[in-house]
Amino acid sequence: MRHYFNKQVSFDETEAITAIRQSHYPLHSKADLGPLMDRIGDARVVMLGEASHGTHEYYMWRAHISKRLIEEKGFNFIAVEGDWPECYRLNRFIKGYNQESKSAFKELQTFRRWPTWMWANWEIVALADWMLEHNTGLAANSKVGFYGLDVYSLWESIENIMQYLKRVDPAALKVAQNAIRCFEPYRKEEGSSYARAAQFVPDLCQKEVVELLSEIQRRLPTYNTDHENVFSTEQNALVAVNAEKYYRAMVTGGPHSWNVRDRHMADTLERLLTFHGKDAKAIVWAHNTHVGDARATDMTNEGMYNIGELARLEHHDKGVVLVGFGSWRGSVTAARAWGAPMKEMELPQAQKGTWEYLLHAAGENNKLLIMNDLVRNDMLMEHHLGHRAVGVIYNPIYEQYSNYVPSVIPMRYDAFIYLDNTKALHPLHLEPHGHETPQTYPFGV
């Protein structure tokens, strides 16, 4: 999805730059996160964004914030823009339940869906090892979890259901086999072939996945094994239902498929909060386009919503804090096309007149902004400024034509972390320099 920045908007850059200079907090180290912790307070949900899926500093700062939220404020889990089956395996590892996996590095090698670099990277290895150490010795109901919110893992989710049923309920296995048999001819192209076929047979495999979910939910009370595995089995069935719905929505494109995906992520977050108890607290890692309230962007004009907006509506009484991230220039890990090899690419200087340009003009230092300090500025509240959004598919030569979401930033986020110069993420399957672990491990800024 492309967003275009309207350069014809009349805007007083000098006033905006002055407002940023007067209101930001310098961000040099983890010790400078105090104002953000104060803003978070007793909030139940904290969402941490990113302006790309391939920037080292976004992952590292989100890890620093997450560690403090877990240690100081008792947050129960991290939920990410990733697939449920793979993230659930990592969740079992960091809780010390997976005795077969000896290291986070080996566990993350199982993340095979493109773009693998989003979660199979050294930055996540460091976070997973820290979470494993944190959880060691804690009671089962006190261990901090790691879960995936996304909807793409249709085949993997059905296969996981089949593996579970083989162990605990072989009689129910036939329903899962019917579902995967229906989808099998469309597996090769990760849903696109299913979407094309659904143009001619609209309910192609819908009946099979709905029956699978119904059967799982009907028999759940009889599954008295590992409580979290029972929850995961039902979640995999929900993924199958919503993935099928998502792939059918791909036929028409536009806002419907986006909304199916973000509604699934929001519903998964709600299920996780319920599973962890009435006082549970959640940390979410996802792209700014999912985290930053869609009502403060041009997305709302197209009928689109996102998990940030839905969380604010659902949990406004218990507190939701949305934190955006951005940078002016640097490098980024991305690919030129879907499924193409990843590359380290240049991230050019932000376009003139954009939010990142103004932040750089206000001083070439990293900054933390608390939006309570900016909402009183009428000009910033009345203008949609371009705000950079780089996806897994990126080409720097098109930077001036796309990759900017018109946004009223003080409304879109509760806080914003600006990093002037950033560098590319460190994927696991790129050999570290000198055959050693990069200096991103353990945490360091």
TrEMBL record:
Spell out where the chain crosses the membrane. none
Q: Which domain of life is it from?
A: Bacteria
Enumerate the Gene Ontology biological process terms.
Answer: methylation; response to antibiotic
Q: Which GO terms describe its molecular function?
A: methyltransferase activity
Q: Pfam families of this UniProt entry? A: Erythro_esteras (PF05139)
- Which InterPro entries does the UniProt entry name for this protein? Emycin_Estase (IPR007815), Hydrolase/PRTase-associated (IPR052036), UCP036794_erythomycin (IPR014622)
Q: Which UniProt keywords apply?
A: Methyltransferase, Transferase
PANTHER family found in the cross-reference section:
ESTERASE, PUTATIVE (AFU_ORTHOLOGUE AFUA_1G05850)-RELATED (PTHR31299)
Q: What is this protein called?
A: Protein-L-isoaspartate O-methyltransferase
